[in-house]
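Forum: Protein Structure Q&A
Topic: Joint prediction for protein chains with partners

I've read a bunch of threads here and the consensus seems to be that you should model interacting components together rather than docking separate models afterwards. I'd like to see that in practice. Below is the full input, 1009 residues plus whatever partners are listed. Could one of the regulars post the assembled result?
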Amino acid sequence: MSLIELKHISRSYTMGERSFYAVFDINLNLNEGEFAVILGPSGAGKSTLLNLLGGMDSPTEGELVFDGENIAGYNDNQLTDYRAWNVGVVFQFYNLIPTLTAYENVALMKDVRANSGKKSVWNKGYVEVMHPEDAIARVGLSERMHHFPSQLSGGEQQRISIARAIAKNPRLLLCDEPTGALDTNTGREILKLLQDLSHREGRTVVMVTHNSACAEIADRVIKVKNSRIKSDEWIENPKDAMDILW
Amino acid sequence: MKNKVQFFSIFIMSFLGLFVFVGMDSEVAGFTAAEDAFYTKCNLADIWVQGKNFSADDLRKVLDLEGVEKAERRISVKGKALLPDREADMYLNFLEGNEISCLSPVDGEVYVPGEKGVWLDYNFAEKNGLHIGDTVRLKYEGRDFDAILKGTVRHPEYVYFLRDTASMMPDYGFYGAAFMDVSEYPEEDVCFNEMILDAEGIDNEKALNRDEKEIRNILDTRIKDVLDNDSLAVLDKDDNLSYQTFRAEMEQHKGMAFMFPVVFMLISVLGIITTMTRLTKKQRTEIGTLKALGFSRGIITLHYISYGFFLSLSGSVLGAVAGYKYIVDLVLNMMKSTYLLPQAKGKLTFSGVLVIMASVAVASLVSFLSCRKELVPPPAETLKIEAPKLMKPSRFEKSKVWLKLKFATQWNFRDIRRNKVRTGMGIVGVTGCTMLMLTAFGCLDSIEFITNWMYGELNTAAYQIVMKEDASREESYEYAKKYRGQMMEIAQADFEAGGIRKSGNVTVIEKGSLLHFQGDAFEHQFLTEKGIAMSAKMADSLGISKGEFVRWHLTGDDKWQKDRVVQIYANPGTQGITMYREIYEEHELEFKPLMILTNVDPSSDLMDDDNVTGVQDTKEMMRSMDQMKEMMYMMMAIFISAAVILGVVVLYNQGVLSFVEKAREMATLKVLGFSTGKIRGILQLQNLWITIAGVILGIPFGRLLLYEIMADMPESMDYRAVIFIPSYFYSVLGTLILSAAVSFFLSARVKYIDMVEALKGIE
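Posted by a regular:
Agreed with the consensus. Here's the joint model:
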């Protein structure tokens, strides 16, 4: 079943007197439980696509339908609400709050949901926010949950970032170059974690990367170039994350 | 340019500090210089000898004394000026010469001894519409006499003068001083009651130093040796109300001048620490690169020190110029109604330059110390990305309560722990803001309180009948009986305890229901019948307390008395001792009740009564306090403006710093689904905490400042620092509104945070 539909989506920017398209006329369906990778060189438009999917930006043209709701015309508050209920984000540089411990960083999500309120259009009886300890256990860092980010390695910080993203049980997990700042081994471990989240727990994961090796673990690879989708392929037997090389 | 708010705040704090300091310092220096010049020009008397009837022979004897350069006799008495609509109290001075404490002409003819006519203090003439050539009707001892107004003058002994000992504030124009040749004296027997002396070795200006005190004491003895006068008093500048009050006021201004730069410099220092630390941390890689490229550590260090150096230099210099230009005039104008001095001009002093130098030196040093961490290590180390600060959770943060706290609370708590200097700067700013507001409102409250205290609680008489100086005791008793009044005598006296000597008043009262007494804590008490009671301020000045002994003698009476202080009372206006008539008489002193307090309106009956000098209405005395209130409004405006500038600049600065540091975190929170309102709430919460902490600290500091201001009042005044409940409310509310406005304005920026920033790499 299709979770997200992008219909003729374009996003243009104006710089001075010149305007240009960061993404142009994109048509795409993403299904629930799918692990999709958006692959492309820098400047191709993949980050813009991620921003649009995550409700961090709005398209200038086209429709973006999430679970039957067209969010393309949403205002700031509606988009915040959309993000609070549906989207989990894993950042390239983890973006943990340095003054909070791992546990507290994950516990933040309770506030996000509480803040959004029960009247939200997205409150359709989804599963509750996970207990921070459970979320951290899911990424295998229970022993280090009371450490501050500065006391954790890059890989550990990224795990906590993933725990934070999944803690609110989002329907869409967006990952922006999640291995970009990590060494190969640690990167592989992170990818394995994401793969498991999708394959074992049925989460919809969309990962943006410029690293084609990472794409081998996905169910689907969407290649982007010059603001357009160049190809959209289904991988029948994705590799196990621990087996890839780069 | 990115740090313009922080740099501006360093600049503005240096500016404000020097603005107030140089302004007040130049004002004090200018005013003191004008006063000194005036005293020198007029040759202010060095010694005043008061007695009953100084003969020409007495004058010769004094002139012959070693150490006496000049001497003049004069009659100084209290009389009236009969104006078309009222009788005004006048200090009448009949002069024999004009070489000591001489008249300084303002308008009209210059006074020459022997010349007929009257010279009035210019303020009185101006306010009562009297012109040169007018005939002025004066009254002394029930006798009217006319004199032609020849000129208006200033007099060095009438720079500050009160209507009578019961008054608390001057209200020039309502009463005044007149100067005439002795030939204008209306009585047949000319009784000189005062001699003024120019002594060798005593300067006209500045308070008496140790040598001058010694000269004064030697002369005191010599004068008393040669003059056979049973009521002799030898006084000097320190006993002179006009001289002393002005000096005390200048001391008070000096104190305030120093307080301001200290507060502003503290904030400026905190500002420099936060800004420079942040700046060098941000430019760590550039610093490392420059070092690696071969730039010497000295050159790089100099570059960073130059920020603090130039900001504080430009701020200080501009502040000094602006303070000199604006504050001086403002204060001089405020003082005009209290001190009758020639027009003074601000005068720059060396301390102004010193404070500028100190401010710049401190700023440069603090800049250096803040940057040292990045500047000292070798380039290889500086080029590496700095490891984040390690934080250990406190016991509270490990507790279960902590985990139950909201994220906003946790975040702000930790943020404050990590940024102590920045938070400290915010708290100091808010503290200063509340402190200044509270002091501003407190000044007004205190004046209000003192007026009500004096004329509503301690003295509940509506009128004061002042008897003629030679009225007999029986006559006074008669009037007291007629008007159901309470009799009182106030006499000047000297007090001594433990080597400290002070001038003050002895108040003697008959039993009655119009004068009331309160203890040091305003508790009601009855005046002791067992001995003497001493005013709290006098006891404090003499360093004695209840149960200890004081030596005292009346001015004009050489006999020293020794008494145990049985009671301490508080009185804002008159300092000294108070006792019942019976106790006074036990000292073999004669009770001369020249003042009768009453609630029966006697004015119409007593207009032309020969035994009465005048009737004073309490309402009129309260009016002079209103004038002081107007001066206080001006002070309040200055204090509140300073409070607002301080609050806005510091809170805005600390807010911007905090905002810039957390921009990435806020962008992340936005991506995670926090609404703009929620994030603004988090920022505002921290601001609220800082404000509350500042307000809590500001209240005691405000009280302390007000207490200091009141304590610096002249010794004759015991003004209590009082703050009414609404003033606490206004100051706290004012600070909160200010803080909320700054916080609202700052947090509005959250809306414009770009979430995409969060996805980018760390710069």
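Chain B touches chain A at residues 387-391, 393, 398, 403, 406-408, 410-411, 414-415, 417-418, 664-665, 668-676, 678, 751, 755-756, 758-759, 761-762 (CB under 8 Å).
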